[in-house]
């Protein structure tokens, strides 16, 4: 603010000096019989042509004092040109800096937003990008920005460098149009405090949190966080599964990891549109039909946010139900 005020004052001072010199040029030249600067308009025209370094030569001073003022205009033109080039350079650098830091925003929609960057969120980002899903990462350090830029391209990964306390700026990550928001800090308490403020600012966002302390799960449930992942609990279940059901563990690990090829199997989900031929059909009919035609194995249905695992055969599917199934990229396209 102070710098802006100084620039305004300097600008007014320079404008005043300029007008004074033009008037003085008009006075000393118009009183000379053979002079060609005969009125104030001629004086302004000469000054502008000189200051812009155009130099038509149609008007020029012939008196000593007039030429002295002309020299001041010539020297001033160098200063103005240097000032303009410097300002343009500064503006371009500021624009590029803002763009690199994500301050110009993104038009991504249906993307995943990751807030906070560490080794764990890096693994999450890698899985999302492997699945060819767009992701936006919000960090508060330029060092993280440089690391993410080296790992991922700009097409699928948008990075916003932002103070974590500046929730309004999260709009630049188009957070309200995102599919999911994953909040990840090293400390569970920091994650909880941030999530409380985030839900106050953006009550409709769908949050996912991974926590170490399972006792905090109820606190996150109270905030309306639907997806709360206790890290230790998931790890312990996997280890136990490897001990007494190793083949189940191997299958589970393969299915939940992001597929690398079009033929690799994944657990997938897809929303049923209103015009889909699947609407109003029974679950059993669709199960048999999709297994025969597309080699898809249905696992469950999500309706109004509630996951129905292995539904009854008579369950009738409705528009906007979400089918959960085992399939690959090819079979997923067929189901679409």
Strand adjacency order, main sheet: 3-2-1-4-5-6
How would you sum up the global shape? Answer: elongated
Which secondary-structure class do the elements indicate? alpha/beta
Largest sheet: 6 strands, parallel
Low-confidence runs of at least 5 consecutive residues: none
SSE order, one letter for each helix or strand: HHHEHEHEEHEHEHHEHEEEH
Helix content: 40-55%
Number of helical segments? 11
Radius of gyration, Cα only, in angstroms? 34 Å
Q: What integer is the average pLDDT?
A: 84
Q: Cα distance, first to last residue?
A: 55 Å
Strand content range: 5-15%
Q: Care to count the β-strands? A: 10
Task: Identify the notable features of this structure and list them briefly.
336 residues, alpha/beta, 10 strands, 15% strand
Can you describe this structure in just a few lines?
The protein is of the alpha/beta class and 336 residues long. 49% of the residues lie in helices and 15% in strands. It is elongated.
Give a verbal description of the structure.
The protein is built from eleven helices and ten strands. It has helices at about 1-30, 40-50, 65-100, 120-130, 140-150, 190-200, 215-220, 230-245, 245-255, 285-295, 330-335, and strands spanning about 110-115, 135-140, 155-160, 180-185, 205-210, 225-230, 265-270, 295-305, 305-310, 320-325. Helix 6 (about 190-200) links the parallel strand 4 and strand 5. Helix 1 (about 1-30) packs across helix 2. The model has no long low-confidence stretch (mean pLDDT about 85).
